[in-house]
Amino acid sequence: MSLLRENDTIAAIATPAGPGGIGIVRISGDMAPEMFHGLFRPSSRIMDRHPQSHRLYHGWFIDPETGEAVDEVLAVLMRAPASYTREHVLEIQCHSGPAILSRILEACLYSGARLADPGEFTRRAFLNGRIDLVQAEAVAEITSAKSHSAGRLALSQLQGRLSERVDEIRHALKDCLASLEVAIDYPDEDVDILDEYGTAQRLSNHVIKPIEAMISEFERTRIFRQGAGVLIAGRPNVGKSSLLNALLCEDRAIVSAIPGTTRDPVEAELHINGIAVKFTDTAGIRPDPDPVEAIGIGKVREMFAASDLVLWLLEAGVPVSDHDLEAASLIARSDRFHQTLIVFSKCDMQAGSCGPDDEITQRNLRVIREKFPEADVSSYVCISSVTGQGLPELEKAVADRIMQAAGSELPDTAINTRHRAVLSKVLDTARRALQSVTSEMSPEISAMELREALTDLSEVTGEGVTEEVLNHLFSSFCLGK
Protein backbone atom coordinates (compact mmCIF):
# COMPACT_ATOMS: atom_id res chain seq x y z
CA MET A 1 0.00 0.00 0.00
CA SER A 2 1.40 3.40 -0.99
CA LEU A 3 2.09 6.13 1.54
CA LEU A 4 -0.46 8.33 -0.28
CA ARG A 5 -3.23 5.78 0.30
CA GLU A 6 -2.17 5.33 3.91
CA ASN A 7 -2.78 9.06 4.45
CA ASP A 8 -6.28 8.92 2.94
CA THR A 9 -9.38 9.22 5.09
CA ILE A 10 -11.18 5.88 4.78
CA ALA A 11 -14.77 4.79 5.43
CA ALA A 12 -16.65 1.51 5.53
CA ILE A 13 -19.72 -0.15 6.98
CA ALA A 14 -18.53 -1.89 10.15
CA THR A 15 -21.55 -4.10 10.88
CA PRO A 16 -22.68 -7.26 9.04
CA ALA A 17 -25.22 -7.05 6.25
CA GLY A 18 -28.82 -7.90 7.04
CA PRO A 19 -31.48 -6.95 9.59
CA GLY A 20 -30.28 -5.95 13.03
CA GLY A 21 -30.71 -3.49 15.86
CA ILE A 22 -28.01 -1.08 14.76
CA GLY A 23 -25.67 -0.31 11.89
CA ILE A 24 -22.29 1.44 12.13
CA VAL A 25 -20.34 3.38 9.54
CA ARG A 26 -16.71 3.95 10.53
CA ILE A 27 -14.41 6.73 9.27
CA SER A 28 -10.68 7.05 10.04
CA GLY A 29 -8.27 9.80 9.03
CA ASP A 30 -7.61 13.52 9.18
CA MET A 31 -11.01 14.42 7.70
CA ALA A 32 -13.02 12.67 10.44
CA PRO A 33 -13.54 15.84 12.60
CA GLU A 34 -14.56 17.80 9.49
CA MET A 35 -17.10 15.13 8.58
CA PHE A 36 -18.46 15.19 12.13
CA HIS A 37 -19.38 18.84 11.70
CA GLY A 38 -20.35 18.62 8.03
CA LEU A 39 -22.50 15.48 8.04
CA PHE A 40 -23.95 15.45 11.55
CA ARG A 41 -26.55 17.84 12.95
CA PRO A 42 -26.87 17.58 16.76
CA SER A 43 -30.33 17.55 18.30
CA SER A 44 -29.20 20.00 20.99
CA ARG A 45 -29.02 23.67 20.00
CA ILE A 46 -25.96 24.23 22.15
CA MET A 47 -22.82 22.38 21.17
CA ASP A 48 -19.15 23.16 21.43
CA ARG A 49 -17.35 23.48 18.10
CA HIS A 50 -14.80 21.12 19.59
CA PRO A 51 -16.91 18.16 20.76
CA GLN A 52 -15.55 15.97 23.47
CA SER A 53 -13.67 12.92 22.32
CA HIS A 54 -15.31 9.53 22.97
CA ARG A 55 -18.69 11.09 23.79
CA LEU A 56 -21.88 10.00 22.05
CA TYR A 57 -23.96 12.81 20.56
CA HIS A 58 -27.57 12.40 19.45
CA GLY A 59 -28.75 13.99 16.24
CA TRP A 60 -29.35 13.57 12.53
CA PHE A 61 -27.13 12.50 9.66
CA ILE A 62 -27.39 15.03 6.83
CA ASP A 63 -27.03 14.36 3.10
CA PRO A 64 -24.32 16.84 1.97
CA GLU A 65 -25.88 17.21 -1.49
CA THR A 66 -29.51 17.85 -0.53
CA GLY A 67 -29.20 18.99 3.09
CA GLU A 68 -32.00 16.63 4.12
CA ALA A 69 -31.90 14.31 7.10
CA VAL A 70 -31.03 10.71 6.23
CA ASP A 71 -31.49 9.05 9.63
CA GLU A 72 -31.60 9.65 13.37
CA VAL A 73 -28.17 8.68 14.63
CA LEU A 74 -25.63 8.70 17.41
CA ALA A 75 -22.20 10.06 16.49
CA VAL A 76 -18.94 9.63 18.37
CA LEU A 77 -15.65 11.30 17.47
CA MET A 78 -12.51 9.66 18.86
CA ARG A 79 -9.55 11.97 18.54
CA ALA A 80 -6.05 10.72 17.77
CA PRO A 81 -4.15 9.00 19.22
CA ALA A 82 -6.79 7.57 21.57
CA SER A 83 -8.58 5.53 18.92
CA TYR A 84 -8.45 2.10 17.32
CA THR A 85 -6.26 3.30 14.45
CA ARG A 86 -4.47 6.08 16.40
CA GLU A 87 -6.00 8.45 13.84
CA HIS A 88 -9.12 10.59 14.21
CA VAL A 89 -12.03 8.14 14.06
CA LEU A 90 -15.71 8.95 13.56
CA GLU A 91 -18.41 6.34 14.04
CA ILE A 92 -22.01 6.88 12.97
CA GLN A 93 -24.48 4.58 14.72
CA CYS A 94 -27.67 4.43 12.69
CA HIS A 95 -30.54 2.07 11.89
CA SER A 96 -29.31 -1.05 10.16
CA GLY A 97 -31.35 -0.95 6.97
CA PRO A 98 -29.11 -1.60 3.95
CA ALA A 99 -30.43 1.46 2.13
CA ILE A 100 -29.70 3.74 5.11
CA LEU A 101 -26.19 2.35 5.62
CA SER A 102 -25.37 2.63 1.91
CA ARG A 103 -26.61 6.21 1.75
CA ILE A 104 -24.54 7.24 4.78
CA LEU A 105 -21.45 5.54 3.37
CA GLU A 106 -21.98 7.21 -0.01
CA ALA A 107 -22.25 10.60 1.72
CA CYS A 108 -18.91 9.98 3.46
CA LEU A 109 -17.28 9.04 0.14
CA TYR A 110 -18.83 12.12 -1.51
CA SER A 111 -17.32 14.27 1.27
CA GLY A 112 -13.77 13.12 0.54
CA ALA A 113 -13.23 9.71 2.10
CA ARG A 114 -12.46 6.61 0.07
CA LEU A 115 -13.78 3.11 0.62
CA ALA A 116 -11.51 1.21 3.00
CA ASP A 117 -9.72 -1.89 1.81
CA PRO A 118 -10.42 -5.17 3.65
CA GLY A 119 -8.77 -5.00 7.07
CA GLU A 120 -7.46 -1.48 6.52
CA PHE A 121 -8.60 -0.14 9.90
CA THR A 122 -6.69 -2.91 11.68
CA ARG A 123 -3.76 -2.50 9.31
CA ARG A 124 -3.53 1.17 10.28
CA ALA A 125 -3.70 0.20 13.96
CA PHE A 126 -0.69 -2.06 13.31
CA LEU A 127 1.27 0.44 11.21
CA ASN A 128 0.64 3.19 13.78
CA GLY A 129 1.98 1.01 16.61
CA ARG A 130 -1.22 0.47 18.54
CA ILE A 131 -1.02 -3.31 18.18
CA ASP A 132 1.56 -5.75 16.85
CA LEU A 133 0.93 -8.22 14.05
CA VAL A 134 0.06 -11.06 16.44
CA GLN A 135 -2.67 -8.89 17.97
CA ALA A 136 -3.87 -7.82 14.52
CA GLU A 137 -4.33 -11.48 13.60
CA ALA A 138 -6.21 -11.97 16.86
CA VAL A 139 -8.76 -9.37 15.77
CA ALA A 140 -9.62 -11.49 12.73
CA GLU A 141 -9.76 -14.63 14.85
CA ILE A 142 -12.12 -13.04 17.38
CA THR A 143 -14.53 -11.96 14.67
CA SER A 144 -14.53 -15.45 13.13
CA ALA A 145 -14.40 -17.53 16.34
CA LYS A 146 -16.81 -20.47 16.11
CA SER A 147 -16.69 -21.51 19.74
CA HIS A 148 -16.09 -20.31 23.27
CA SER A 149 -12.61 -21.86 23.35
CA ALA A 150 -11.60 -20.23 20.05
CA GLY A 151 -12.81 -16.86 21.34
CA ARG A 152 -10.85 -17.21 24.58
CA LEU A 153 -7.63 -18.08 22.74
CA ALA A 154 -8.06 -15.14 20.35
CA LEU A 155 -8.73 -12.77 23.26
CA SER A 156 -5.59 -13.98 25.03
CA GLN A 157 -3.64 -13.26 21.85
CA LEU A 158 -5.21 -9.81 21.55
CA GLN A 159 -4.25 -9.07 25.16
CA GLY A 160 -0.61 -9.72 24.25
CA ARG A 161 0.08 -13.08 25.93
CA LEU A 162 1.69 -14.63 22.86
CA SER A 163 3.62 -11.44 22.15
CA GLU A 164 5.00 -11.59 25.71
CA ARG A 165 6.28 -15.14 25.14
CA VAL A 166 7.93 -14.08 21.89
CA ASP A 167 9.52 -11.09 23.65
CA GLU A 168 10.97 -13.38 26.32
CA ILE A 169 12.60 -15.48 23.59
CA ARG A 170 13.87 -12.32 21.89
CA HIS A 171 15.48 -11.06 25.13
CA ALA A 172 17.17 -14.44 25.68
CA LEU A 173 18.54 -14.38 22.13
CA LYS A 174 19.87 -10.85 22.66
CA ASP A 175 21.55 -11.86 25.92
CA CYS A 176 23.29 -14.78 24.23
CA LEU A 177 24.31 -12.58 21.33
CA ALA A 178 25.70 -9.95 23.71
CA SER A 179 27.92 -12.55 25.37
CA LEU A 180 29.26 -13.66 22.00
CA GLU A 181 29.86 -10.09 20.81
CA VAL A 182 31.95 -9.30 23.90
CA ALA A 183 34.15 -12.28 23.08
CA ILE A 184 34.42 -11.07 19.48
CA ASP A 185 35.32 -7.49 20.50
CA TYR A 186 37.98 -8.56 23.05
CA PRO A 187 39.67 -11.60 21.53
CA ASP A 188 43.07 -10.96 23.14
CA GLU A 189 41.98 -10.78 26.79
CA ASP A 190 43.84 -13.18 29.10
CA VAL A 191 40.68 -14.27 30.91
CA ASP A 192 37.83 -16.21 29.38
CA ILE A 193 35.15 -13.64 28.64
CA LEU A 194 32.76 -16.05 26.96
CA ASP A 195 30.96 -18.48 29.27
CA GLU A 196 30.13 -21.17 26.73
CA TYR A 197 28.25 -23.29 29.27
CA GLY A 198 26.08 -20.41 30.49
CA THR A 199 25.33 -19.25 26.94
CA ALA A 200 24.45 -22.76 25.86
CA GLN A 201 22.17 -23.25 28.88
CA ARG A 202 20.36 -19.98 28.28
CA LEU A 203 19.98 -20.75 24.59
CA SER A 204 18.63 -24.20 25.34
CA ASN A 205 16.31 -23.36 28.26
CA HIS A 206 15.03 -19.93 27.23
CA VAL A 207 14.98 -20.14 23.43
CA ILE A 208 14.91 -23.68 22.09
CA LYS A 209 12.68 -25.36 24.68
CA PRO A 210 10.01 -22.59 24.72
CA ILE A 211 9.82 -22.65 20.93
CA GLU A 212 9.61 -26.44 20.89
CA ALA A 213 6.78 -26.25 23.43
CA MET A 214 4.81 -23.75 21.33
CA ILE A 215 5.24 -25.79 18.16
CA SER A 216 4.25 -29.02 19.90
CA GLU A 217 1.10 -27.32 21.20
CA PHE A 218 0.08 -26.27 17.69
CA GLU A 219 -1.83 -29.44 16.78
CA ARG A 220 -3.54 -29.61 20.17
CA THR A 221 -4.64 -25.99 20.10
CA ARG A 222 -5.84 -26.39 16.50
CA ILE A 223 -8.87 -28.20 17.90
CA PHE A 224 -9.59 -25.34 20.31
CA ARG A 225 -9.14 -22.77 17.53
CA GLN A 226 -10.75 -24.40 14.52
CA GLY A 227 -12.86 -27.15 16.06
CA ALA A 228 -12.78 -30.91 15.65
CA GLY A 229 -13.94 -33.03 12.74
CA VAL A 230 -15.94 -36.21 13.42
CA LEU A 231 -16.60 -38.57 10.50
CA ILE A 232 -19.63 -40.89 10.62
CA ALA A 233 -18.69 -43.96 8.56
CA GLY A 234 -20.06 -47.42 7.87
CA ARG A 235 -21.89 -49.57 5.35
CA PRO A 236 -25.08 -48.38 3.60
CA ASN A 237 -28.27 -48.28 5.69
CA VAL A 238 -26.46 -48.73 9.00
CA GLY A 239 -27.99 -45.51 10.39
CA LYS A 240 -25.40 -42.82 9.65
CA SER A 241 -27.84 -40.19 8.38
CA SER A 242 -30.31 -40.99 11.14
CA LEU A 243 -27.58 -40.44 13.72
CA LEU A 244 -26.66 -37.04 12.24
CA ASN A 245 -30.32 -35.97 12.31
CA ALA A 246 -30.72 -37.22 15.88
CA LEU A 247 -27.67 -35.30 17.09
CA LEU A 248 -28.98 -32.12 15.45
CA CYS A 249 -32.62 -32.71 16.39
CA GLU A 250 -33.55 -31.87 12.79
CA ASP A 251 -33.82 -33.61 9.42
CA ARG A 252 -30.56 -32.43 7.86
CA ALA A 253 -29.65 -35.63 5.98
CA ILE A 254 -31.97 -37.72 3.79
CA VAL A 255 -32.96 -41.02 5.42
CA SER A 256 -34.14 -43.84 3.15
CA ALA A 257 -34.27 -47.63 3.13
CA ILE A 258 -32.72 -47.52 -0.34
CA PRO A 259 -28.95 -48.19 -0.06
CA GLY A 260 -26.62 -45.45 -1.28
CA THR A 261 -28.91 -42.48 -0.58
CA THR A 262 -26.00 -40.38 0.73
CA ARG A 263 -23.49 -39.63 -2.02
CA ASP A 264 -21.98 -36.26 -1.06
CA PRO A 265 -20.84 -35.56 2.51
CA VAL A 266 -23.44 -33.82 4.70
CA GLU A 267 -21.98 -31.62 7.44
CA ALA A 268 -23.39 -30.10 10.62
CA GLU A 269 -21.78 -28.40 13.60
CA LEU A 270 -22.44 -28.80 17.31
CA HIS A 271 -20.68 -27.33 20.33
CA ILE A 272 -19.38 -29.79 22.89
CA ASN A 273 -17.49 -28.60 25.98
CA GLY A 274 -16.95 -25.20 24.35
CA ILE A 275 -15.39 -26.74 21.22
CA ALA A 276 -16.96 -26.59 17.76
CA VAL A 277 -17.43 -30.16 16.51
CA LYS A 278 -18.28 -30.75 12.85
CA PHE A 279 -20.06 -34.06 12.23
CA THR A 280 -19.96 -35.37 8.66
CA ASP A 281 -22.34 -37.99 7.32
CA THR A 282 -20.65 -39.93 4.52
CA ALA A 283 -21.51 -42.28 1.69
CA GLY A 284 -22.09 -45.90 2.69
CA ILE A 285 -19.06 -48.12 2.12
CA ARG A 286 -19.49 -51.43 0.33
CA PRO A 287 -17.36 -53.60 -1.98
CA ASP A 288 -19.53 -53.26 -5.12
CA PRO A 289 -20.67 -49.63 -5.35
CA ASP A 290 -22.23 -48.11 -8.47
CA PRO A 291 -20.12 -45.45 -10.26
CA VAL A 292 -21.66 -42.53 -8.37
CA GLU A 293 -21.36 -44.30 -5.00
CA ALA A 294 -17.71 -45.04 -5.83
CA ILE A 295 -17.05 -41.30 -6.13
CA GLY A 296 -18.68 -40.75 -2.72
CA ILE A 297 -16.62 -43.55 -1.15
CA GLY A 298 -13.48 -42.04 -2.65
CA LYS A 299 -14.31 -38.79 -0.84
CA VAL A 300 -14.71 -40.72 2.41
CA ARG A 301 -11.24 -42.21 1.97
CA GLU A 302 -9.79 -38.70 1.57
CA MET A 303 -11.69 -37.37 4.60
CA PHE A 304 -10.38 -40.03 6.99
CA ALA A 305 -6.97 -38.38 7.13
CA ALA A 306 -8.45 -34.96 7.99
CA SER A 307 -10.78 -36.19 10.75
CA ASP A 308 -10.04 -36.05 14.46
CA LEU A 309 -12.40 -38.92 15.25
CA VAL A 310 -14.22 -41.61 13.25
CA LEU A 311 -17.54 -43.05 14.40
CA TRP A 312 -17.72 -46.53 12.84
CA LEU A 313 -21.36 -47.59 12.84
CA LEU A 314 -22.39 -51.25 13.05
CA GLU A 315 -25.95 -52.51 13.38
CA ALA A 316 -26.79 -53.88 16.82
CA GLY A 317 -27.96 -57.49 16.90
CA VAL A 318 -26.73 -58.21 13.37
CA PRO A 319 -23.55 -60.21 12.59
CA VAL A 320 -20.72 -58.21 11.04
CA SER A 321 -21.05 -58.35 7.24
CA ASP A 322 -18.57 -58.08 4.39
CA HIS A 323 -19.79 -54.53 3.86
CA ASP A 324 -18.95 -53.71 7.48
CA LEU A 325 -15.49 -55.22 7.03
CA GLU A 326 -14.99 -53.18 3.85
CA ALA A 327 -15.57 -50.03 5.91
CA ALA A 328 -13.11 -51.32 8.50
CA SER A 329 -10.54 -51.95 5.76
CA LEU A 330 -10.79 -48.33 4.66
CA ILE A 331 -10.25 -47.18 8.25
CA ALA A 332 -7.26 -49.50 8.60
CA ARG A 333 -5.67 -48.37 5.33
CA SER A 334 -6.05 -44.77 6.51
CA ASP A 335 -4.38 -45.67 9.83
CA ARG A 336 -7.28 -44.16 11.79
CA PHE A 337 -8.27 -47.04 14.08
CA HIS A 338 -6.49 -45.33 16.97
CA GLN A 339 -9.00 -42.49 16.49
CA THR A 340 -12.09 -44.62 15.89
CA LEU A 341 -15.05 -45.20 18.20
CA ILE A 342 -17.28 -48.21 17.51
CA VAL A 343 -21.00 -47.36 17.62
CA PHE A 344 -23.75 -50.01 17.51
CA SER A 345 -26.86 -48.40 16.01
CA LYS A 346 -30.55 -49.38 15.86
CA CYS A 347 -30.45 -50.93 19.31
CA ASP A 348 -34.22 -50.29 19.59
CA MET A 349 -34.81 -52.88 16.84
CA GLN A 350 -33.38 -55.88 18.69
CA ALA A 351 -35.18 -57.81 21.37
CA GLY A 352 -32.23 -58.12 23.73
CA SER A 353 -29.83 -55.54 25.07
CA CYS A 354 -26.79 -54.19 23.28
CA GLY A 355 -23.98 -54.40 25.78
CA PRO A 356 -21.34 -56.57 27.42
CA ASP A 357 -23.81 -59.41 27.99
CA ASP A 358 -25.15 -59.48 24.43
CA GLU A 359 -23.86 -62.55 22.59
CA ILE A 360 -23.98 -61.08 19.06
CA THR A 361 -22.21 -57.90 20.20
CA GLN A 362 -19.42 -59.91 21.77
CA ARG A 363 -19.13 -62.14 18.70
CA ASN A 364 -18.89 -59.07 16.48
CA LEU A 365 -16.18 -57.58 18.67
CA ARG A 366 -14.20 -60.84 18.49
CA VAL A 367 -14.40 -60.84 14.68
CA ILE A 368 -13.20 -57.23 14.56
CA ARG A 369 -10.35 -57.96 16.98
CA GLU A 370 -9.21 -60.98 14.93
CA LYS A 371 -9.26 -59.22 11.56
CA PHE A 372 -8.13 -55.76 12.78
CA PRO A 373 -5.94 -56.11 15.90
CA GLU A 374 -5.31 -52.35 15.92
CA ALA A 375 -9.03 -51.62 16.46
CA ASP A 376 -10.04 -50.51 19.97
CA VAL A 377 -12.89 -52.84 20.95
CA SER A 378 -12.60 -52.11 24.67
CA SER A 379 -15.02 -49.18 24.47
CA TYR A 380 -18.11 -48.83 22.33
CA VAL A 381 -21.50 -47.15 22.49
CA CYS A 382 -24.95 -48.55 21.72
CA ILE A 383 -27.51 -46.06 20.43
CA SER A 384 -30.93 -45.62 18.92
CA SER A 385 -31.46 -42.59 16.74
CA VAL A 386 -35.22 -43.20 16.98
CA THR A 387 -35.65 -43.32 20.77
CA GLY A 388 -32.55 -41.31 21.69
CA GLN A 389 -31.14 -44.18 23.73
CA GLY A 390 -27.38 -43.87 24.16
CA LEU A 391 -27.07 -40.45 22.52
CA PRO A 392 -25.96 -38.70 25.75
CA GLU A 393 -23.36 -41.45 26.25
CA LEU A 394 -22.20 -41.02 22.65
CA GLU A 395 -21.80 -37.25 23.05
CA LYS A 396 -19.80 -37.82 26.24
CA ALA A 397 -17.59 -40.40 24.52
CA VAL A 398 -16.98 -38.01 21.60
CA ALA A 399 -16.17 -35.17 24.02
CA ASP A 400 -13.77 -37.40 25.98
CA ARG A 401 -11.92 -38.47 22.82
CA ILE A 402 -11.66 -34.89 21.54
CA MET A 403 -10.51 -33.52 24.89
CA GLN A 404 -7.97 -36.33 25.12
CA ALA A 405 -6.48 -35.12 21.84
CA ALA A 406 -6.78 -31.42 22.70
CA GLY A 407 -5.73 -31.66 26.33
CA SER A 408 -7.85 -31.14 29.40
CA GLU A 409 -7.20 -27.42 29.78
CA LEU A 410 -7.24 -24.49 27.40
CA PRO A 411 -3.68 -23.11 27.09
CA ASP A 412 -2.89 -19.46 27.77
CA THR A 413 -1.55 -18.94 24.26
CA ALA A 414 -1.67 -20.66 20.91
CA ILE A 415 0.17 -20.14 17.64
CA ASN A 416 -1.34 -20.23 14.17
CA THR A 417 0.06 -21.68 10.96
CA ARG A 418 2.08 -18.56 10.11
CA HIS A 419 3.60 -18.39 13.58
CA ARG A 420 4.56 -22.07 13.41
CA ALA A 421 6.35 -21.61 10.09
CA VAL A 422 8.35 -18.63 11.40
CA LEU A 423 9.14 -20.26 14.74
CA SER A 424 10.30 -23.41 12.98
CA LYS A 425 12.90 -21.33 11.11
CA VAL A 426 14.00 -19.69 14.36
CA LEU A 427 14.25 -23.10 16.04
CA ASP A 428 16.47 -24.53 13.30
CA THR A 429 18.78 -21.51 13.48
CA ALA A 430 18.93 -21.58 17.28
CA ARG A 431 19.84 -25.27 17.23
CA ARG A 432 22.69 -24.54 14.84
CA ALA A 433 23.86 -21.74 17.12
CA LEU A 434 23.75 -24.07 20.13
CA GLN A 435 25.81 -26.65 18.29
CA SER A 436 28.43 -24.08 17.34
CA VAL A 437 28.64 -22.79 20.93
CA THR A 438 28.99 -26.26 22.47
CA SER A 439 31.52 -27.26 19.79
CA GLU A 440 33.69 -24.27 20.77
CA MET A 441 33.60 -22.94 17.25
CA SER A 442 34.43 -19.33 16.47
CA PRO A 443 32.02 -16.97 18.28
CA GLU A 444 31.53 -15.12 14.96
CA ILE A 445 29.71 -18.18 13.57
CA SER A 446 27.43 -18.48 16.60
CA ALA A 447 26.73 -14.73 16.55
CA MET A 448 25.79 -14.90 12.87
CA GLU A 449 23.27 -17.65 13.60
CA LEU A 450 21.74 -15.71 16.50
CA ARG A 451 21.39 -12.55 14.41
CA GLU A 452 19.55 -14.60 11.79
CA ALA A 453 17.28 -16.04 14.50
CA LEU A 454 16.46 -12.55 15.78
CA THR A 455 15.66 -11.35 12.27
CA ASP A 456 13.35 -14.29 11.66
CA LEU A 457 11.68 -13.91 15.07
CA SER A 458 10.77 -10.31 14.29
CA GLU A 459 8.40 -11.63 11.60
CA VAL A 460 6.09 -13.05 14.27
CA THR A 461 5.15 -9.71 15.80
CA GLY A 462 5.61 -7.80 12.55
CA GLU A 463 8.84 -5.82 12.89
CA GLY A 464 10.45 -7.64 9.98
CA VAL A 465 7.40 -8.68 8.01
CA THR A 466 7.21 -7.97 4.28
CA GLU A 467 4.58 -5.95 2.44
CA GLU A 468 3.50 -9.11 0.63
CA VAL A 469 2.77 -10.88 3.93
CA LEU A 470 0.83 -7.88 5.23
CA ASN A 471 -1.29 -7.71 2.09
CA HIS A 472 -2.05 -11.42 2.36
CA LEU A 473 -2.97 -11.25 6.05
CA PHE A 474 -5.24 -8.23 5.90
CA SER A 475 -6.97 -9.27 2.67
CA SER A 476 -8.88 -11.88 4.69
CA PHE A 477 -10.43 -9.24 6.97
CA CYS A 478 -13.89 -7.81 6.41
CA LEU A 479 -14.23 -4.27 5.01
CA GLY A 480 -15.17 -2.53 8.27
CA LYS A 481 -12.37 -4.09 10.31
Structure description:
There is one protein chain. The protein is of the alpha/beta class and 481 residues long. The chain folds into 3 domains: 3-132, Gyrase A, domain 2 (2-Layer Sandwich), CATH 3.30.1360; 148-223 and 416-461, tRNA modification GTPase MnmE domain 2 (Four Helix Bundle (Hemerythrin (Met), subunit A), Up-down Bundle), CATH 1.20.120.430; 227-406, Rossmann fold. It contains 16 helices and 13 strands. The protein has helices spanning 3-6, 32-39, 98-110, 120-127, 133-144, 148-158, 161-185, 196-226, 240-248, 291-306, 322-333, 359-371, 391-406, 417-438, 443-461, 467-474; strands at residues 10-13, 23-28, 40-42, 56-62, 69-78, 89-94, 114-115, 228-234, 266-272, 275-281, 309-315, 340-345, 380-382. It has a 7-stranded mixed β-sheet with strand order 3-4-5-6-2-1-7. The chain is flat, with a radius of gyration of 30 Å. The two termini are 17 Å apart. Residues 253-260 have low confidence and may be disordered.
In the CATH scheme, the class of the largest domain would be Alpha Beta
Strand order of the largest sheet: 3-4-5-6-2-1-7
CATH topology of the largest domain: the name is Rossmann fold
Overall pLDDT metric: 84
**CATH superfamily assignment of the largest domain?**
P-loop containing nucleotide triphosphate hydrolases
CATH architecture verdict of the largest domain: 3-Layer(aba) Sandwich
Major sheet, described briefly?
A: 7 strands, mixed
Spell the H/E element sequence: HEEHEEEEHEHHHHHEHEEHEHEHEHHHH
